[in-house]
Amino acid sequence: MIKKPLNGRTPNGNNALRAMETLERATQVSHLRLNESRVEGDMFIPRAWRMRGYVLCPNITNQGLLYRGDTLDAEEFHNTPKRYSMASLKEMDMADKLYRRMRWEDLALALLRSHPIYRLLSMGIKLPGTRNEYFRISSSVLLHSYGISSPYISLTSDKDIALFYAVTDYDEKTRKYVPTKKEFGVLSCYQLREPFNPTSRVFPIGLQVFERPGLNKEFSCKLRPFEDFYELPEVTGLVFYQDRYVSEYMLDKYEGGELLCPQNDILTNKIKQTDGCLLQSTFKRFLKRYPQFEMDMKTVQERYKVVDDIRDMLMFSYDELIKYHDSFEYWWYEFCKKILFEVDKKLDRDFFESIPYDSYYSRYFRF
Description:
Blueprint: E1 2-3, H1 13-26, E2 44-48, E3 54-58, E4 65-72, H2 74-78, H3 94-111, H4 116-123, E5 125-126, E6 134-135, E7 152-156, H5 159-166, E8 168-171, E9 176-179, E10 184-191, E11 202-204, H6 212-215, E12 218-222, E13 235-241, H7 244-253, H8 266-273, E14 277-279, H9 280-289, H10 294-303, E15 305-307, H11 318-325, H12 328-337, H13 349-353
Parallel strand pairs: 1-13, 14-15
Antiparallel strand pairs: 2-3, 4-10, 5-6, 7-12, 8-9, 10-13, 11-12
Helix pairs in contact: 1-5, 3-10
């Protein structure tokens, strides 16, 4: 339940944050697996996932809640606040739904896989001493983190990050976060009541090849069409009055949002370049796959830009990779430093740090 301020009380974001801290201390940690113990620190913990893969989860072994921050306008405050997934923000017709699915496929099959380290971790790193076991990262909801319309909604394991999003707005023109102009904010939490599994409503996005999910210590929550996040039985939250001082403090703490959503993020820029575009090959494939939607596909053709070949735009170039990464070997070493391999006996830190120099895997580290 989302609680509104009582008459005569004017709590701000700091009050809501303190209330969440109190609630967290009183919440029992019940999502750990039988063989999982509590660990300290701000590392990412590899959890065995589906298809003999892993998800690199932010360390939440000492907490039972995840968080979300939203801004509210006066109309939302005076009515019942609601929060849907991006896929439910408007009633999309079939043409928009088809475009969304084709757009997702274009980015997943062309853009993401053109990054060599993403490709490496998609295919997997064979674990030494095993017959057929691999270390591969689950990236099924990665594009959600970058604003691609999806049935998911974002959560974070960090209360302060949630508060940042509850007191700021994103300015599309300047591509910067600014103090919100809305009158209210809401800081909400989701109680984890069972261990993560492939069918869970909530699961980690965590550390990835691309920055945003890891920086935001991000999790995703899957919603059905027009299902309200605030009405889920696991969710509670507090509505508060916006205070410009709190907004400015949080902006300063996260360097205007640059520490959470860097402007030079290589994936953000590529997605923005191709907004509204579809590959002709993907369009034809869907037309063949769904002949019953032929009229809707014609609407897609009229509404969006279907081009013969935008693979140059949908694939990372040598110049982009070398400008962004400088050295894949150093990037990989820094990536491994964030992971607590010791929690899984099958994973050896020294082995993973030496991957760029392995005769088989070294090809993924050449530009």
